[in-house]
Amino acid sequence: MAILGNIIKGVIGLKDTFSSEVVHTEAQREVLIDLLKKAKETQFGKFYKFEELLESTDVQKAFANAVPYFDYNKINDQWWHKLHDGETDVTWPGNPSYFALSSGTTGKTSKRIPVTDEMIEAIRQAGIKQVFALNNFDLPADFFEKEIMMLGSSTDLAEKDDHLEGEISGISASNIPSWFRGYYKPGIEISQIEDWDERVQRIAERAKDWDIGALSGIPSWIELMLQKVIEYHKLNHIHEIWPNLQVYTSGGVAFGPYEKSFNALLGKPITVIDTYLASEGYIATQVRPETDAMQLNTDNGIYFEFVPFKPKYINEDGSLKNEAPSLTLEEVERDQDYVLIISTVSGAWRYLIGDTIEFTNVERAEIKITGRTKFFLNTVGSQLSVNKMDAAMRELEEKFDTTFPEYTICAKRGEDDEFYHYWYLGSELQNADCEAVAKALDESLKTANKNYKVARSKALKGVKVKVISPELFYDWNEQNKKKGGQVKMERVMSEDKFKEWEDFVSEA
């Protein structure tokens, strides 16, 4: 009998019984007021007169009117760079203990995003919320005695001046509580290995020593790790070595594009739970099995705003125009795309993290990630978001009985000086009929998106497809020093970047 597991499950159930339901709109007002109070004596708080904002009858509206939007480049150039020059109390009291390094999916150089001790605590509290939410998923007691494989970036953080630097998954893993370390795999020693391939090789070698009950990480890199373990031990599927694997916690990107290829590595179905951890904070987590939507962490160090995702509000580089209106949680509607804006205990203010979301349940503050502002393809009016592209991939998988876990696209003029969408699709499909795939993709997008259909009847001449091995996408990321950890493949490329990509594929 799983005695410890029953105790843990009982505690989780008891916590759930006595927890009061969060009123998300009220929690958000309280979070904003708390942020403004704590930061009012900072350089940023004085410049934007936080003290006066706190005296407003409508603090949320006053805040939105007083403080402009910031993306990373803007807030770093105007404010965060001071932290590296030795200044203190810049956008948050004191100095951050960490900087999260993130090149994202479009940046050429690493961003250095402040991570304060308050943010570490907020991430920890959000993680506890996720653990308690497991009570809703009807897992057996023995699950709570199994080990958890967390595949993120290296926990061997670099020391620089008075702080540490690394990717957010490595920072988070380096701060796991002592009581959890017995459950945490691959363990501190392997997690500190910087080279991703070497780390995965060590995981494969040690896999038989562990009783893994849950996996956590970005889908593409979890898949590659599972493939390595299966290959190393000559298995048919991962459950032959980890028979008690029951849960996968996905994060960072939508799981849908990877579902079919991921399930092919399993011997039996498992529970998939979506989470949303960005370099700037723990945004949301799935708390119930009836939906794959995630609940915003509204009471824990992050204040959210939402800008309607419309081309007229977005600059060409993906940043927001100053006149773009923002909505509070009280004002949003279901099934509308919004640009996500956050203000945090790490001193990010009205900050564009680059993701777009939609609400599936406003009262519960439940969302889905729909794409990236920079990955919105609006050449000649086609208005394609990542979720529409992902949905098209799922249709292609059914039609051609294969998987398309990776893809990238560029809109550019062809040799006839007409606009085309050029797609590269990652698949193990042998001898693919690219013209047939292109036709099916085109028809799928026409059906799903009226703007795309209109564009195809006018300025968008057609669709061109090349099917390549998914390995080339991972090799591309490795060449760009973006393998493993929090890395996500760019879905939409500029013409310059796409030329580099095509040269890379040709040489490979």
From TrEMBL:
Gene Ontology CC: one annotated term: cytoplasm
GO molecular function: acid-amino acid ligase activity
Domain (GH3 C-terminal): residue spans on this chain: 390-495
A Pfam match: GH3
Span of domain GH3 middle: 298-362
PANTHER family attached to this UniProt entry: GH3 DOMAIN-CONTAINING PROTEIN
Entry protein name: GH3 auxin-responsive promoter
Source species of the chain: Winogradskyella epiphytica
